Amino acid sequence: MSLSKCFEILTKYFPSFLLGIRTTLIVALTGTLIGLLIGLLVGGIRAIKLDKTASKTNKIIKAVIDGILKIYIEVFRGTPMMVQAVFIYYLVYTNIVRWDKMFAAIFVISINTGAYMAEIIRSGIQAVDPGQNEAARSLGLSAMQTMMNIVLPQAIRNAFPAIGNELIVNIKDSSVLMIISITELMFQSNSIAGTTYRFTETYFVTAMIYLFMTSISSVILNAVEKKINHTRTSLPQSDTSIESIVIAKKGADHVNN
C-alpha cells in the first residue's frame, strides 16, 4: 500500500467521498433521532406498571401491547440490519409503492435503532429511584405527568452514554445500506475502488474517514454528557427534594396558564 496513492485518491475523488459522508451523516443522525423517539415511546410503555387496582380489561390490554412490543424488539435486535433493509425495501417497493431509497434507508435504520433504544430507555427508567415516582404520585401528579416531568428526564440522563453509542454504531452500520444502492460512504468507496483498481488504498482512506467521523462524534457526545451531568436545578441546593421540584413545576404551570 502506498500512502502517496491514498492521498492521490482522496484528493482526486474528494467530491465523491464528500457526497458519501453527507449521506452517511444524514441517515445516521436522522435514524438515531427517530429511533430515540421510538425508543422513548416503546420503552416508556413497557416500563409502565399498572396498579393493583387496575381493571382486568386494562391488564389484558397492557399484556397484549407488551407482547407486541417485545416481539418487535426481539425481531429487530435478533436479525442483521442488512437483511432487514433488503426485506423491507423490496417488500414495500414491489407490493405497495416505489419509495425513495433515502427514505427507505432512514426508515430501516430508525426502526432498527428504535428496538435498541427501547431497551436502553427502559433500563434508564428502571434505574430511577422508585421513591421519586411514589412521591410525585402522592403529591397529585398523574402517571403521565410523573413519567414526563420526573422519570424520563432522569432516565435519558442515565442512558445518555448508551444513546450516544447508538449514534456511533449507526454511522458505521449505515455502510450495510449500500445493499439497497444508497450513495453513502461505502457505496461511493466501492465505485472509486472499481474505477481505480486501488482497493487497498481506497478502503484505507474510507476507514480513516469513518474513524474521523466517529472520533468527532465521540468528542461532541462527551462534551454534551459533561454538560448534562453538570446541569444544576434552579432551586437552592437545600431545596431540591422531589416535593419542591413538583411544587415548582406546578407553580410554573399555573403562571403559564
Fold and architecture overview:
- The N and C termini lie far apart (68 Å).
- The chain has helices spanning 3-12, 14-47, 56-78, 81-95, 101-127, 130-138, 143-173, 185-196, 199-229, 242-256.
- The protein is mostly helical and 257 residues long.
- The chain has ten helices and no strands.
- α2 runs antiparallel to α7 (143-173) and α4 (81-95) crosses α5.
- The chain has a single domain, classed as MetI-like (MetI-like fold), CATH 1.10.3720.10.
- Mean pLDDT is 84; it is low at 232-241.
- Helices cover 81% and strands 0% of the residues.
- The longest helix is centred in the first third of the chain and has 34 residues, at 14-47.
Features:
elongated; MetI-like fold; mainly alpha; 10 helices; 257 residues; 0% strand
Summarize the structure.
The chain has ten helices and no strands. It is mainly α and about 260 residues long. The radius of gyration is 23 Å and the shape is elongated.
- CATH class assignment: Mainly Alpha
SSE string: HHHHHHHHHH
Q: Helix share of residues?
A: over 70%
Low-confidence stretches: 232-241
Give the helices and strands, then pairings.
Blueprint: H1 3-12, H2 14-47, H3 56-78, H4 81-95, H5 101-127, H6 130-138, H7 143-173, H8 185-196, H9 199-229, H10 242-256
